[in-house]
Amino acid sequence: MTDLTIYNLQTIIQKSGIGILILNWEKRIILSNLWFQRYSAFTSETLLNQFFLDIFPELKDSRIDKSIHFCLEDKQYSILTHSLNPSPFPLFENKKDKLENKRIYQYLHIIPIPLSDSDRSLCMIQISDVSQQVTREKMLRDQMNLATSMKEGAIRASNAKSDFLASMSHEIRTPLNSILGMTELLEETDLSQDQVRYLDVLRNSGKALFNIINDILDFSRIEAGMLEIDHHPYSLSSVIEETLSLFFLRAKNKGITLETNFFPGISKSVYGDPIRVQQVLINLIGNAIKFTQEGKVSLEVRCEFDSKIRKEVLLLEVVDTGIGIPTDKINKIFDSFTQVDSSTTRKFGGTGLGLSISKRLTELMGGKISVSSVSEKGSTFSLRLPYLPYIENDQLLASSWDGITLPEPDAFPKLKILLAEDSPENVFLVQSFLRKYPIEIDVAENGKIALDKTNQYSYDLVLMDMQMPIMDGNETILQIRTRESKNNVKSKDSLSIIALTANVAKEDIAKSFDAGCNSYLTKPVKKMDLLRILFFYSKIRP
Amino acid sequence: MKKDIKMSSKKVLIVDDSTVTRLMIKKIITESKPEFQFIEFDTADKASTYLETAEHVDLITLDQNMPGALSGLDLAEQIRNKLPLTKIILITANVQDAIRERAAKIKIDFIDKPISPEKLLPLLGGL
Amino acid sequence: MKQLTELEEDALNELFNISLGGAAKLLSEMISNEILLTVPSLKIISLEEALKLETLTSNEVCSIEQKFKGSLGNGSAFILFHKDSSLEIVRMMMKDYVQINEVSHFEKDALSEIGNIILNSILSNLAKMSDKKIETDIPEFFIGKYEDILREDYARISKADTILMAFIDYHLKGKDIKGYIFFLLESETIKQLSRVLLEKLK
């Protein structure tokens, strides 16, 4: 610093890119630089030796004033940012801003400068113009606020959609439950020939309606991006056997052969979503049988190596000897709402959504679906899925109560169960299903009554409807589990609770499990499923 | 607790969690009014319990922020109506407007710390 | 290392509380909202003990430091918050603030200012009550691991061998934020300070 003269130093201060103001112990301005003069529109002469508060009377008692005081008195170093300083210096970019009192945004340092010859100090004020940063911050803030509100809007819209789907699902499945259930019960009564015929039509219509509704709801969910694909080990051979068994009667009645070819070397169990795989297979096999008048429908299961993705692929092919698909229509076969022509709708029925849903489900599972066909000769639908074999140690089943054989009503164990269900039709249905069995049914119209009853009486099992007034299914389950843990009930002694849900959405089923249910049945509840699950739980919780 | 058996001795309740501050307040008052009696508490909760059964108290000094459920002002608001003749002074480091206004609302005096004779003695006039 | 008597500790604690009361008033005026700054406790610790403080070890922290010199000797004072707490404070103090989830230039400035106000209040009260003069330096902002910051600061103040640590509670808009103030001082200074307060009692 020794090469610099006083003159040099003064020039340095004057030409500095920030504002500099120096006050003495009397708070008189003893130096101001060019920057400060330009932005304050004061000249050097006007400022020199004047009292700070005479030049800036509006700053009396402001943070700047107080900081100057502490600087001179206590040698305190202060910094003042624009956001926390309501009274900055009256400095302006131009005359227009001055008229509007639009001050530049300032970052201030208030710095004690000790004097060599006295205990006092000078006060140096340094001012930076941070207007540009502030403008950028504001822009960023506005952008972020916009992004947030758009995101919130999108979330609201999505929630509205899924709420609608959920309530629609419930509203539609509940009466359907009654219709199909009643049909099952009627079938067991004494019927005249006419009645048998009428019932047939009724049952088929009910089932058709059920399938159509499922298709539509599934389709809506897939479109809304709300369908989740499961990923767990399952028995591929069981799923295929089960699926085919659904069609034996129909194939036999039509006089066509239904067979399956399971090629060697395929793992019995694989990872995936068995429900969706079954759904696609049911669609493909159903179609194959529908459009085949004579010959056979076969399901071929084999492994393939896809050289493009260098991975093994599970190939399921449904081959039929049916009417085939004309070449001009084959490209659109997987599009929504398309059928070969309108006459097929009338002749064969269906929404035209089946293949479209199968395609989407396949894609969601990470696979591909394709078709090849020759008119009048037959079609082959090919379903390719990632092959993820599971090395099993134990038995794997989709659900453990599924395949068990039921005893006759007189050999059935005596049970006392609680049915928590608000719809009288559904209550009547369950009572009717179980009327031949030694099962005592207690009814609770809502969750609160169910909770009270479980407090008072001991039940072998509880059937808990999910949607109930006052307290819904999940809440009631939660309360029961909470009470059990308070009373230190061991899990093997805890109450078996089966959730009855109209909603097949994975999230909702998961919610029921989170609340503490042991298993679930989807509505419309089938009599056999109900009996199996009751029998199963009576065995494991004697 | 010092018990002074002189007649006409005034009772002062000092509530502050700082020992040093309690000593300073006691010192300032004693130097000017040596006959005063003192009872001290370090939380408003304890003072509140005491005041439920206490006979007359002439002066109460309160800190605002102390450990426990009650703040100084909470206590003052509680006892203002029960002890209308007692002089209550809030002595606190918490000098924000919200506190000053609350004190003014129940008509008690306010002193900001650090405490000094110049701040405290003029308020003892009536005693 | 000398320890304080209970009374001396109480005196220092009260001094801190009074100082923070003033700082809180300044801060609350800026945002027109009540702020409560209190010192629940303070103590004298060694560097080893400081490095073992459970709530701080291995944490990311922000610190604002002011070195000082004068008749309190050479030393430094710094105020420390957990990184998340720092962002929380800036958010509470700035009504238009949009958090970008990292301590950026904006937060650095805001925190430096808040730290500056609090530390200045403490240092000037200390100076006033002990009738001594302290000169403070520009506030410096650091962000990093607690142990690194503490060791660096300690190393830079050559004659200071005592740490006076105060826990502070920053309460605003229903939220409670824990902070810490560290004073690196020469050991004689602390004794002098507390004695000065007790002098006033005699």
Beta-strand percentage of chain B?
15-25%
Structural class of chain B: alpha/beta
Q: Distance N terminus to C terminus of chain C?
A: 27 Å
The ordered string of helix (H) and strand (E) elements of chain C is HEHEEHHEEHEEH
Second rung of CATH, namely the architecture of chain C: 3-Layer(aba) Sandwich
Give the strand order, joined by hyphens, for the main sheet of chain B: 2-1-3-4-5
Low-confidence stretches of chain C: none
Envelope shape of chain B: globular
Q: Low-confidence parts of chain B lasting 5 or more residues at pLDDT below 50?
A: none
Count of separate structural domains of chain C: 1
The CATH topology of chain C = Chemotaxis protein chec
CATH architectural type of chain B:
3-Layer(aba) Sandwich
- Rg over C-alpha atoms of chain B, rounded to the nearest angstrom: 13 Å
Helices and strands of chain B, in order, run as EHEHEHEHEH
Helix proportion range of chain C: 40-55%
Number of strands of chain C: 7
Describe this structure in words.
The complex is a heterotrimer of chains A (542), B (127) and C (202). Chain A has 542 residues and is of the alpha/beta class. Chain A has helices at 6-14, 34-40, 44-47, 52-55, 63-74, 95-99, 131-187, 193-223, 236-245, 248-254, 274-290, 327-330, 342-348, 354-364, 424-433, 447-456, 473-486, 506-515, 527-540; strands at 19-23, 29-32, 78-80, 106-114, 121-129, 232-235, 257-262, 269-272, 296-306, 311-320, 368-374, 378-386, 415-420, 439-444, 461-465, 496-501, 519-522. Chain A folds into four domains: 6-129, Beta-Lactamase, CATH 3.30.450.20; 158-222, Helix Hairpins (Orthogonal Bundle); 230-386, Histidine kinase-like ATPase, C-terminal domain (Heat Shock Protein 90); 409-540, Rossmann fold. In chain A, the strands form four sheets. Chain A has a five-stranded antiparallel beta sheet with strand order 2-1-5-4-3. Chain A has a five-stranded mixed beta sheet with strand order 7-9-10-12-11. Chain A has a five-stranded parallel beta sheet with strand order 14-13-15-16-17, with helices on both faces. The longest helix of chain A has 57 residues, at 131-187. Chain A is elongated. Chain B has one domain (11-124): Response regulator (Rossmann fold, 3-Layer(aba) Sandwich). Chain B contains five helices and five strands, in the order βαβαβαβαβα. In chain B, strands 2-1-3-4-5 form a five-stranded parallel beta sheet, with helices on both faces. The mean pLDDT of chain B is 88. Chain C has 202 residues and is of the alpha+beta class. Chain C has helices at residues 6-31, 47-51, 83-93, 105-129, 146-156, 187-199; strands at 35-45, 60-70, 75-82, 134-136, 140-145, 162-172, 175-185. In chain C, a hairpin with a 2-residue loop joins strand 6 and strand 7. At the B-C interface, helix 1 of B face helix 1 and strand 1 of C.
